[in-house]
Amino acid sequence: MIGQAVSHYQILEYLGGGGMGVVYKAEDTRLKRTVALKFLPPELTRDPEAKQRFIHEARAASALDHPNICNVHDIGETDDGQMFIVMACYEGESLKKRIERGPLPVGDTVDIAIQIVKGLANAHEHGIVHRDIKPANILVTRDGTVKIVDFGIVKLTGTAMLSKTGSTVGTVAYMSPEQARGDVVDHRTDLWSLGVVIYELLTGRLPFRGEHEQALIYSILNEDPKPLEILPGDSSVGLDLAVKKMLQKDPDCRPQEATDALAGLMSVKEKLEAVRKQDSAAADEPQPSIAVLPFVNMTADPDNEYFSDGLAEELINALSQLDGLHVTARTSAFRFRGKDVDIREIGNQLNVSTVLEGSVRKAGTRLRITAQLINVADGFHLWSEKYDREVEDIFAIQDEISSAIVGKLKVRLFGEERARLARHYTDNFEVYDLYLKGRYFLSTLTVEGITKSLGYFQHAIQIDRSFALAHTGMAAVYYVHAVLALVPSVEAMPKAQSHLLKALELDASLAEAHAWLGEVNLVYNWDWTAAEKNLGRAIELKPNSLEAHQFYADYLIATGRLDEALTEVERARDPDPLSTLPDSIVAYDLFVSRRFERVIEHCRKMLSTEPSFLLQIHLWRALHQQNLLHEAFLEAKKLFMVFISCEVADVMESVYAESGYAAAMRAAAQKLAELSTQRYVSPYLIATLFSQAEDDDETLRWLEQAYEERDQRIYITWIDPGWDRVRSFPRFTALVKKVGPKK
Q: Where residue 44 sits, what CATH number does that domain have?
């Protein structure tokens, strides 16, 4: 019928249909408004009873004038005798479609239910019973207004039923017991159906179910629905009772009027509003926040610094698991090591209200630890304590300090959080001490430090193979080996994966292990589905996990979801404001989105405060994309001089002076290729240099080599603008199909 004219209505589009009618969107050509036309199905045109019921729908609904009832404008009949109703047309969706996306929040459900019952109260006052209240017959407009539609199965009070004796009219799942039995019904049947709708809105499922119609009717007549256990707080009691009362089998036990049901729902709404105001007031209060500074090593032996650092880091890790406490990450907090900076300046830079500082003196088996919690605003001590204990008591000391902080900052702890705060992964001090050393030397990110770190983690595992954290530490060491190109990924990453799987076998709740495994699946296995699953699980277990948010940002960039990636970066930056890693992720996001001027501006700003390998690379490549070749050369030379190889930087400089940029990049690539016969060099980096030298064959050859060696960055090749020169080449296309995201 689309495109046809019916009377003075032009049919525009099909909206939907059901047992009692088919609905089209149309234009009222006289009044120039959009309306909905509901036609009696053609197969029922010859049914006098159905036709009469259709007329009753129009008459009954047209008598109603209420904000929550669909307005009926007119009734008509086509030339071939087909009946239709002209109704208001609303922009929105039915509750049926909304429920398909999952359960609704309690507050939204109550607001919708209140509007439904107000509309029903108006209909009942006019002697009209709907008898088919269900999600498909309830529309929610874009502004949130509820409209009850389809009074096609009404019973006018004082009028004989239109259905035959013993028959039922309506939708079985939402029928009251009396309606399912075919008994005479009154307005209380609508309140039963409303109870079913509310239950479904809250849970996403029907209260009564059966594999076939008779089984469903049996359930309605004989079974009780499962209690609504998903509702939070005291308000759930009132709503649960309200729904339970509507779903009483005996109509005399239900609310006797719609206004009675409305009173119960309004009471629930008031409770919800009180809770919301309480939560809003709590939200207006600043969240407790803390930075744990590195504890000062008070011994004469600088080698004991690992222990004082480890104590501070363990406190950071423990406290960061609490949702109600903002904790500065290690990278930013440790920036103030050995610096004479006013406590208020530290608080300002780290955006925290309190700072924990302390000292450690370790002599043989004895420890002396001092700790002070300081209020940033005035410099006053909120708490301080001194501990003279044996080294084996370090776990108890950590617990006492954490508990004192939680108490002083008035952080609310739930049962699971309390258990996590007090958890230790080993009771063996020797194993724990080795673990602290491993983590300390890994944080140096030097070849010597990483080598030492590996030895300490290995020793810890030899003593206690069930120490999950040491396995995670081992995985991080191997991962860093690959990232710094100390060894090929094909050598390091399988070892990292093996230790991560072992760590999760020992403890599936380790968020960091899930995060690292997600990164391994992304950059090494190219298993995009597993990577997203791992990272999602890590964030679920530990919403404040830096690694999880940073790795997930990598994943989002690699899948082209650039705006989402920036959101993840901000979540990672929040607890770690002084770290350059989030800034490098932002730079690459901008690079992939081809905002090269922004990349240059951003990187120069960040590099003005401290050097960064990743920011330096992004700056160099963005300058090349903008064809600012001299500036690109200067940044490339700085990159190789500071981070990679002075020998390559010298070759690059000598060739540039004589032959220009492309020749200098070629010389650098050739020198790196020569060095790759002596030690590991990233083939991806060599390919990058050949690309800037405009040598397509060598670019593709080294990209294919990067694929064979599973180089760290090959997974993101498909979206990287640096490969535009070779993007249309069949060899490049074949490579992308192997490593890129599957679409």
A: 3.30.200.20
The CATH number covering residue 415 comes to: 3.40.50.10610
What's the rounded Cα separation, in Å, for the pair 313 and 442? 13
Q: Examine the pLDDT at 417 and tell me if it is beyond 70.
A: no
- Residues 62 and 97 placed together within one structural domain of the fold: no
109 and 252: one domain?
yes
CA distances from 409 to 377, 378, 527 (A): 14, 16, 43
Asked if 295 and 332 touch (Cβ cutoff 8 Å), the reply is no
Instruction: Tell me if 431 is assigned to some domain.
Output: no
Looking at the structure, tell me whether residues 206 and 353 fall in a common domain: no
Give the burial class of 523: count Cβ atoms within 10 A of its Cβ; 0-12 exposed, 13-18 middle, 19 or more buried.
buried
Whether 352 and 376 have beta carbons less than 8 Å apart is answered as: yes
Q: Are residues 218 and 262 in the same domain?
A: yes
| Contact (CB, 8 A) for 89 and 146 | no
The two counts, helices (H) then strands (E), for the chain are: 30, 17
Amino acid at 43: E
Long-range contacts of 372-377, Cβ-Cβ distance < 8 Å, separation of 24 or more:
373/290, 373/404, 373/405, 373/408, 374/343, 376/343, 376/344, 376/346, 376/347, 376/348, 376/352, 377/344, 377/347, 377/353
Residue 264 · residue 242 · CB < 8 Å: yes
Query: Do the domain assignments include residue 563?
Result: no
- Render 8-36 in DSSP notation, one character per residue: TEEEEEEEEEETTEEEEEEEETTTTEEEE
CATH, residue 278: 1.10.510.10
CA angle at 436 for the pair 430 and 439, rounded to the nearest 5°: 140
Q: Are residues 255 and 355 in the same domain?
A: no
pLDDT, position 285: 66
Report the pLDDT averaged over residues 124-143.
Answer: 88
Q: Which residues are 383's β-sheet partners?
A: 373
Q: What is the CB neighbour count within 10 angstroms for residue 301?
A: 9
> What does the alpha-carbon distance between residue 588 and residue 723 come to, in Å, rounded to a whole number?
14
pLDDT, averaged across the chain: 86
pLDDT value, residue 284 = 59
pLDDT for 234 equals 42
Do 180 and 152 share a structural domain? yes
Cβ burial of 161 (10 Å; 0-12, 13-18, 19+) is middle
pLDDT at position 166 over 50: no
Q: Is the pLDDT of residue 168 over 60?
A: no
**pLDDT given for residue 318 in this prediction:** 84
From residue 643, how far is each of 586, 609, 613, 653 by CA, in Å?
A: 21, 17, 7, 16
Inform me whether the pLDDT recorded for 640 exceeds 70. yes
pLDDT bucket at 712, cuts 50 / 70 / 90: confident
Would you state the pLDDT for residue 717?
93
pLDDT winner (highest mean) among 2-11, 78-87, 165-174: 2-11
Query: Is residue 693 situated within a structural domain?
Result: no
- Greatest mean pLDDT among 124-128, 485-489, 511-515: 511-515
> Beta strands 138-141 and 92-94: pairing type?
antiparallel
Number of structural domains found in the chain: 3
Contact between residue 293 and residue 336 where contact means Cβ atoms under 8 Å apart: yes
Domain enclosing residue 75, as ranges: 1-89
Give the 3-state secondary structure of residue 139: strand
Full-prediction pTM beyond 0.70?
no
Q: Is the pLDDT of residue 293 over 50?
A: yes
- One domain for residues 66 and 120: no
Contact 553, 571 (CB under 8 A): no
CB atoms within 10 A of CB 349: 16
Instruction: Say which residues have a Cβ less than 8 Å from residue 207's Cβ, sequence separation at least 6.
Output: 195, 196, 199, 200, 225, 226, 247
Question: DSSP code of 714?
Answer: G
